[in-house]
Amino acid sequence: MSTVIPGMRTVRNVERNTAVRDGRPLTADQLAVLAKHRRQRNFSS
Predict the structure, then answer these.
(1) CB-CB contact of 34 with 26 (8 Å)
(2) What is the mean pLDDT of the chain?
(3) Which of 19, 31, 33, 44 gives the lowest tally of CB atoms within 10 Å of its CB?
């Protein structure tokens, strides 16, 4: 089964969303893929 994980704006959001999955931590490869989708915010410029 596949699903969309909404609310990935912060690391805390990702941790909370993945906490309810099958109990296995994400692999380094999976974390790297997710990191590419992280929205960067820079309010100072």
Answers:
(1) yes
(2) 76
(3) 44
